[in-house]
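[STRUCTURE TOKENS]
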Amino acid sequence: MRTLLASSLLASSLLAACSAPIAQVAATNPSPRPLQPRAATDVQVFVSRRPVEAHVDVAIIRPAQVGAYGATLSEVVDAVRIEAAQLGCDGVVLDARDQIWGSCIVFAGAPAVAAPAVAAPAVAAPVAVAEGVATSTPVAAAPSAPVAVAPPPSRPASPPSVVLERVFAKLDRDHNGRLGPEELPKNASSLVHQIDTNGDGWVTRYELRTFNAALRTR
């Protein structure tokens, strides 16, 4: 685990001058089992809540925040998920109350496997009756079919507009209840165009909430 985290930190430092957003990793607790890198799509994402399954937090992932290196909200979220995949995390819990960061989690239970078939004990089945007494011959019952336990379904990352609503108060530096061109993330013009219903170039909290409410009903 420490070797994997050290490699991740080294890769992040080498890329600091030429790519964005950059994620920094800090180990927290030992993993309950050895970790292997996986595809980012295999990492479950939990936003401001934790899974019900037993799990261990093994690392904290701190990405570059919105606007750093020209990073958009979706790029920041993707950076956390990609870093979690490289560490071998089962999932990542995102928190955006102050700054966006993620906690790499590993489920405490072993990976789901198919249970081996076990032959049932022989059962006596009556085959003849003589003078009111049943005689029997041992007959082996059919083995039970193996049972496979499916892993929990992966949960997609939150849309950029939902993340934007969570960090609205932080981005609204003048506290006027709306985000101007200088406060909005760079490279978010297409998203702003969808949210800004009156076309004044500003995104109000009401416009953002209305947009996300309509998004949830689709």
In short: The helical segments are 2-14, 73-87, 160-166, 168-171, 189-195, 205-216. Confidence is low (pLDDT under 50) at residues 9-19, 112-118, 123-136. Residues 134 and 171 are 85 Å apart (CA to CA).
